[in-house]
Amino acid sequence: MTKILIIGGVAGGASAAARARRLSEDAEIIMFERGPYISFANCGLPYHIGGDIEQRDALLLQTPESFKARFNVDVRVMNEVVSINRQNKTLTIRNLETQENYQESYDKLVLSPGASPIVPPIPGIQNSRTFSLRNIPDMDKIIASIEHNQPKHATVVGGGFIGIEMAEALIQRGINTSLIELSEQVMAPVDREMATPLHQEMQHHGVDLRLGVALEAVFPSQQEAADELASVDEQGIELRLSNGDLLETELLIMAIGVKPETSLARQANLSIGELGGIQVNSQLQTSDPDIYAVGDAIEDPEFVTGDAALIPLAGPANRQGRMVANNIFGAGEHYKRSQGTAICKIFDIAVASTGLNEKTLQRKGINYQKVYVHAASHAGYYPGAHPINLKLLFNPDSGAILGAQAVGKDGVDKRIDVIAVAQRAGLTVFDLQDLELTYAPPFGSAKDVVNQAGFVAANSIKGDTRLCHSEEINNPNEQQIILDVRNPAELEKLGAIPGAINIPVDQLRERINELPKDKEILVYCMVGLRGNVAYRQLLNHGFKAKNLTGGYKTWLANQ
Amino acid sequence: MTKILIIGGVAGGASAAARARRLSEDAEIIMFERGPYISFANCGLPYHIGGDIEQRDALLLQTPESFKARFNVDVRVMNEVVSINRQNKTLTIRNLETQENYQESYDKLVLSPGASPIVPPIPGIQNSRTFSLRNIPDMDKIIASIEHNQPKHATVVGGGFIGIEMAEALIQRGINTSLIELSEQVMAPVDREMATPLHQEMQHHGVDLRLGVALEAVFPSQQEAADELASVDEQGIELRLSNGDLLETELLIMAIGVKPETSLARQANLSIGELGGIQVNSQLQTSDPDIYAVGDAIEDPEFVTGDAALIPLAGPANRQGRMVANNIFGAGEHYKRSQGTAICKIFDIAVASTGLNEKTLQRKGINYQKVYVHAASHAGYYPGAHPINLKLLFNPDSGAILGAQAVGKDGVDKRIDVIAVAQRAGLTVFDLQDLELTYAPPFGSAKDVVNQAGFVAANSIKGDTRLCHSEEINNPNEQQIILDVRNPAELEKLGAIPGAINIPVDQLRERINELPKDKEILVYCMVGLRGNVAYRQLLNHGFKAKNLTGGYKTWLANQ
Ligand SMILES: Cc1cc2nc3c(=O)[nH]c(=O)nc-3n(C[C@H](O)[C@H](O)[C@H](O)COP(=O)(O)OP(=O)(O)OC[C@H]3O[C@@H](n4cnc5c(N)ncnc54)[C@H](O)[C@@H]3O)c2cc1C
Ligand SMILES: Cc1cc2nc3c(=O)[nH]c(=O)nc-3n(C[C@H](O)[C@H](O)[C@H](O)COP(=O)(O)OP(=O)(O)OC[C@H]3O[C@@H](n4cnc5c(N)ncnc54)[C@H](O)[C@@H]3O)c2cc1C
Ligand SMILES: CC(C)(COP(=O)(O)OP(=O)(O)OC[C@H]1O[C@@H](n2cnc3c(N)ncnc32)[C@H](O)[C@@H]1OP(=O)(O)O)[C@@H](O)C(=O)NCCC(=O)NCCS
Ligand SMILES: CC(C)(COP(=O)(O)OP(=O)(O)OC[C@H]1O[C@@H](n2cnc3c(N)ncnc32)[C@H](O)[C@@H]1OP(=O)(O)O)[C@@H](O)C(=O)NCCC(=O)NCCS
């Protein structure tokens, strides 16, 4: 009889426990959770705060009792594991209700302790109006603070997915909300120009977005010529930002990221990786073969490079938990490299990504090319089509897919999923051209966005198109001219790139002599499609040219 | 200078023309279209009839003038090619406006003549109330008939996607509609049990669905003790069905399928394939290397077997048209095998499929296993989640993906797209377990439907689960008993499989002695998930068991 102890009772831990029981009736399985709940939907927390998920209970997928009944697992909530004693293969556990410590021995140990919100040592940050969000009690506290203090203004620090979801939740509750982000963009997994529509969407919905600023200090509110003795609790707080701004607020959510929970692992001298996560081999064993680790606490090998990455997402945690149970019973399964496929809803739009982004490719010195496609989520003539903005990163020689990002109101999840599968399977951009995807007018296009991205990328590799990017068209050299092939009405309404001359694509053939043969013509249209028509015409008429990928839309997002 | 003639000005033809021009400015390109329009959205026709697409113009993506301006293609509408003269490489064309014939020579010829609706020689079918739908004039005639005759009742013959879309369109216009289908199910690409929810959806929206009946004859209406001289035009028609029923109706849409347009190809002695489509090689050349053919008119090699298949869908037509242009200019590209990925909206639900269905696997004698998964389109605790019913067919040894089908209100397109990419890339059901798909509560689940299908299929291949299907549980032998592990309230509300005993999964451990060890226990729950928990428990307690894949839901759909 194997005795399996599991630390952490949520995504990775509960999945491991459930699968372990399905694999063996006679294993003894104990799951320790220091919090009061197991198997809860962390990912749903912001949506309960915002009101979309009405019932708090909906977030509790299992209870210790239901887990016992179904899986015969001894679930111990409010029990914190305080140390791992590898020599004698025991744990020391503190019962947080009785404050007593006790021991439990194991044959196999699974660590799924998750990650904890990063709260930097900013002066004044420890106060009764400041929260972070990781679990049900955190959520309860935020809701209690809102209900008790009825804040008119809240501030979220951090523009990752939790920060964004919290800003949306607060706005939905009618609270004016500022979001403060140190970098020049929200949603670090995508590149800056892909974040531009997110910024617009947030501002459009009333978020006071402050990019490129940090929170430096928190003070009790000065606003109401305050009674010096009045507490933060009564009067709210004031924030000092790195740009010198002062911001009165009544609720502060810290959401600048999470760090792997490694205190137990460190104390037990398990190997820690370069990024601070627990190091595991491909079978998800730590440096001690009887101890497995999964989820937010570990480092995963990133798909393109195999380099260590922190991928604090629920999908990997769930699947790793299941795999560890398999491996405990000898399956010998290997966790594959991780693409970090992710998505976030931002009011009415979605942003998603898979693989590496351009920033990372640059940082790692990996050779890449990029294309942008803007196409409709489904046939444009059928109601409800919305543009999808897709960025595809690939190896300019082999066409291997390096990463993809997409933004839009509809169908963003589908396109990134499709590309994620293609990347995982080792398909190239050439293969994207041939993908046979579902098409009927309400669902797609005869040539889907993903096929189009394949065409554009393949054209670039084959030399059928030379691509131009915003950086180049913003700084044309003496030997380059800029040609806008849109209709004059579009230029008038939407503006144009400085210095461009305008010949609409449908007049180009007859007016081609207006263009110089000795210069390179940087062509653009709204998205790149007419630019491609014009580009090919110019090329076949003996001109030198390049087509701005993504067109004016991407250029604008880059400004 | 290459002279390229193209027959057919819609999906395949217009795509070939546009791409050919992008590849060469000096090629002479003439596109012949016997109808009055080019580049129209065939797929949108039913939605204009039903009113979803309000503007008729929205269906016309290009005109001869716009095509000339952008692509410098000589577009000749109302010009029917009447013969191909391969010896001297010319076409004979009839100008349908002047009724004059003329010749045009070619270097390369592209056939994209499409397919034509099958109208069987049913007595009386040639009448002024009977239509089929392929192009804009067909649509105009149907709308004119509706507007002129104000029918209270219409009949659609054929339950393929065009028939279904037409039934929906007519219902949307407030017309009572009968749909007559010879087989026992609509949507032949999916298997019968997957069509059950479609039947329910259509009936729920008021379609009078008559399965397993054929149209045998059409008469002038007898209804209103009619003036013998009154014409069909004035009084409508009466249908005689194969089951003896008579059906008064005022509008009849024939939508029993299409057949490849091969008259020109046959007359020119080009090879015709076994299914009656034009035969092409992988470069899309007909038996005459200077003549290419694409689209609905050709036979494609089916993905799993390589056998010939007719795949009359817009995606393939568009991509083949583009590829032919590439090949005319020497690219030497190969058209890959076709999966026939397709989707159809049926009122509020969607049905989609890729690869082979079970009927075809059986007919072809291909070894397969199948699993059914019912899971939510996104996290169940986030509002708006709807069940997806997914059927996955795979090789029971290698796990190669043979085909997939899905039905549901939301996210069906995404799941079939994901599996279509996986199949095309040669991934197996084992790989489906590891797919990293976008997850946030509004978009998916930490373990997506597709991952779950991978788990279930992999379990079956590895021997972790033995699966049972409806056929078996309907006819248990002496050595089998049926165990329902749902809660009593579910059985009461929804019924149960005849002969089943009931022990709720969460009581199974304590009541396991109620079960016999010498019999095989056929376990089921609502969808298969709790059945899996119970199955594994039974197995690990030394019982013989099988789990009904898809559970009671799939069983019901099979009755
Ligand atoms: C607000 C929010 C929104 C999110 N949204 C998404 C999303 O949309 N998509 C997505 O993919 N991911 C999302 N995530 C991330 C996702 O929830 C995590 O990736 C996932 O839960 C990680 O699983 P885990 O098992 O590693 O850790 P957790 O689920 O955090 O579980 C770890 C548990 O271990 C317990 N624990 C730690 N140390 C001990 C100890 N010493 N003794 C006993 N118990 C201990 C903790 O109390 C904790 O409950 C979100 C997370 C949050 C907080
Ligand atoms: C109502 C309807 C709904 C559809 N919905 C979908 C859908 O949702 N999804 C999907 O994938 N597909 C759908 N399709 C199918 C899709 O439209 C076809 O697969 C696609 O149009 C095929 O392209 P093609 O170029 O082969 O033929 P077509 O687009 O039909 O073009 C062929 C053209 O050639 C012309 N022609 C034929 N012979 C001659 C000649 N001798 N001389 C001159 N011209 C000639 C014809 O007049 C015709 O216009 C639908 C079709 C219809 C009719
Ligand atoms: C609730 C929880 C314990 C479920 O664990 P689980 O039982 O392993 O997972 P699921 O309910 O998804 O079931 C998956 C199992 O059902 C099986 N299954 C699914 N559909 C099936 C079907 N139709 N037929 C047969 N089996 C099916 C799968 O094969 C798998 O079983 P296996 O591992 O034995 O192969 C765990 O997911 C959890 O705690 N989740 C909440 C926390 C969380 O994930 N938070 C972050 C996201 S918000
Ligand atoms: C309208 C029609 C002529 C368009 O033909 P097309 O110009 O080849 O196709 P698209 O407009 O989709 O453009 C695709 C081209 O734009 C390029 N493109 C698309 N997005 C781009 C971008 N962002 N940047 C650069 N190029 C882009 C593609 O690479 C491709 O060019 P290529 O073939 O030179 O590589 C043809 O699709 C048609 O007739 N359609 C209607 C009929 C029909 O399909 N009916 C059935 C479905 S309802």
UniProtKB/TrEMBL annotation, chains A, B:
Query: Can the keyword Nucleus be found in this entry's annotation?
Result: no
Checking InterPro entries in the record gives: FAD-bd_OxRdtase, FAD/NAD-bd_sf, FAD/NAD-binding_dom, FAD/NAD-linked_Rdtase_dimer_sf, Pyr_nucl-diS_OxRdtase_dimer, Rhodanese-like_dom, Rhodanese-like_dom_sf
Q: This protein's superkingdom?
A: Bacteria
| Domain Rhodanese, first and last residues per copy | 476-559
Please provide the record's keywords in A-Z order: FAD, Flavoprotein, Oxidoreductase, Redox-active center
Query: What CDD domains does the annotation carry?
Result: RHOD_Pyr_redox
**Matches recorded under Gene3D superfamilies:** FAD/NAD(P)-binding domain, Rhodanese-like domain
- rRNA-binding as a keyword? no
Which metal ions or organic cofactors does this protein require, according to UniProt? Answer: FAD
The record's listing under Pfam families reads: Pyr_redox_2, Pyr_redox_dim, Rhodanese
PANTHER family listed in its UniProt record: NAD(P)H SULFUR OXIDOREDUCTASE (COA-DEPENDENT), PYRIDINE NUCLEOTIDE-DISULFIDE OXIDOREDUCTASE DOMAIN-CONTAINING
As for family, the record states: Belongs to the class-III pyridine nucleotide-disulfide oxidoreductase family.
The protein, known as: FAD-dependent oxidoreductase
What organism, scientifically named, is this protein from? Agarivorans aestuarii
